[in-house]
Structure formats: C-alpha cells, structure tokens
C-alpha cells in the first residue's frame, strides 16, 4: 500500500513538473506591498497566470527609479510601475504603459474633526511623505482644484512616511495628512475624519500602471497579451471574491488583523481599475505638469508613452465583458 502511495505521489510530481515545464517562465516586477497591487498578488496565488500559460516569478523593487532601471536593464519584461516612467522615457528609455492599475491618486485626506469643508483648510498645515512624491503632487492638485494656493493658503510639510504623517497629526504638528491604507485606520482610531477620497475627486494621475517595453511587445507580444489577460481576470476576482482577496492580502502584507484587512480591501476596490483602463488623461496630466519645469516634456503627447494595441484588441474581442461569466 505504501509503495502504491509513493508511486502515486511520484506520478503527481512528474505530472506537475511536466505541466510547469510547458509554461512560459518570466519574472515580473511589482513596486509596493500595497492593496492597490492585489490584482498581481491574486493572479500569482490563485494560479491565474498559469491558466494563461505563464509561470510568473514576482520581483519586488522598491522605488520608481530603481524599477525603471531594472526594466531598462531587461531584468523582467513586465512590471507594475509608477508615473515616473514618463520622466524616464523623456531620457530616452523604451518603457510603455499597456494598462492601468490605479489611474487616480490612491489617497485619502484625513483632518481634524473641526475641519468640515475644504475652505476650512486655509491656514492649516498638512502632511505628505516627501516633496515631489505622489502624495505631494496629489495634494497640490486637490488644493488648486478648490482655489487654494499650496504653500500660501495651506502649508505642506514633508513627514517622511505614512506612520510619520499620522504621528505628526496626533502631535499637532500638522492638522491633517495624505494617507493610504492601513494608515487611515490608525487615523480614524485617533479621532481624525476623512475630508476627501481622491477616487472621487476627478483628479487623474497614473499612480500605478502595467508597463512593458516596445522591444518586448515587438519580440514577444503573446506573452504581454497573456499577462494582461491574467491580470485582468485577477482584478475581476478581487471584486467578486472578497474572502480570496482578504486571504491574499493577509499573506502579502503579513497581517491577520481583520480590521486592517477589511480597510485594505475597501481601499483596493476604491482605487483599482476594473478592467485595467489605459490612463490617457492621467498621463496627459503628468506630461503637462512636467512641462512646467522640464523643457523636454513640451510638445509631447500622452499617446507617446502608451501602447494601447493589446488592450484595445482585448476590448474589441469582448474579453473584458466576458470575465466573471
């Protein structure tokens, strides 16, 4: 009996090895341990990549500039990256956006309870991570939208990171701050309230995109297409299967705190694009913003930084509409 069990296990192992060998092996970069990148996590853990003939090795690369360097160096053909790829492309790189992960600033603005409206921000100090970071760019865009002049009407202070912003709020150094999840949970517990959910502010910004290179698409278009299909199905699962999403979030963020996971899930479903709509307007905005200080960005169009061909092909075929059926 034991011998039969051993043979059965060996047969299963051999079959698994055979199936694995038939998959296309690629490395793919992801830029943050964040709920906004959960589509990638689900595609990996739920074996959706395998469904589309891929075995994906996730590679964590912290920092936008390091991610861009890794893509340019050919360390992986596909990645989840931020809006700084526009700047990298202006320097002569080959990176293009093939789909949108988060096309708006993925932030909440939390403030003291006495601050009821955006007009009440005048004369206040708000915390961001770093000057020039997406928290800074997003807050300035929000203030200008409501006729408030950054640094004159509202003081903007860099705090370093999300925990530091919350600590500064609690200490009274700043009267509010730009937060993500799970920092928003800590802010709520400390008595702060949400003034703005940037998913609903109509501000377009390419916070995170699916990217590849023109040379990769030309050389191996099929792999790029299959990756986009797998990611898209995983995002659909995110919205349809909450328990799977919570389990996946718990694994990748290394927490089993149900309150934190629930907050992260709400955060993800607030901001993640379903399907991964191309960030034309968001890219246009960042190019225009860069053109104010960088002459290289002038006269460039958003289309130069995107390759919509695969997304458009899938949309035309009805692939996105077929998900979840």
Describe it:
This protein has 325 residues and is an alpha/beta fold. It is 47% helix and 16% strand. It is built from 15 helices and ten strands. The relative contact order is 0.17. Mean pLDDT is 90; it is low at 4-19.
Key terms:
325 residues; alpha/beta; 5-stranded mixed β-sheet; 47% helix; globular
Rg from Cα: 21 Å
Shape type: globular
Strand content: 15-25%
In terms of per-residue confidence, which ranges show pLDDT below 50 for 5 or more consecutive residues?
4-19
First-residue to last-residue Cα separation:
43 Å
Helix share, percent? 40-55%
Helix-strand sequence = HEHHEHEHEEEHEHEHEEHHHHHHH
- What structural class do helix, strand and pairing data support? alpha/beta
How many β-strands, per DSSP?
10
Largest pleated sheet: 5 strands, mixed
Q: What is the average per-residue confidence, as pLDDT, rounded to a whole number?
A: 90
**Number of helices in the DSSP assignment:** 15
What is the fold's blueprint, element by element?
Layout: H1 2-22, E1 24-30, H2 38-45, H3 48-51, E2 54-60, H4 64-72, E3 78-81, H5 85-90, E4 95-102, E5 108-111, E6 125-128, H6 134-145, E7 155-158, H7 162-171, E8 176-179, H8 183-189, E9 193-197, E10 208-213, H9 214-219, H10 221-240, H11 242-253, H12 258-271, H13 280-291, H14 309-317, H15 319-322
Summarize the structure.
The chain has 325 residues and is an alpha/beta fold. The chain has 15 helices and ten strands.
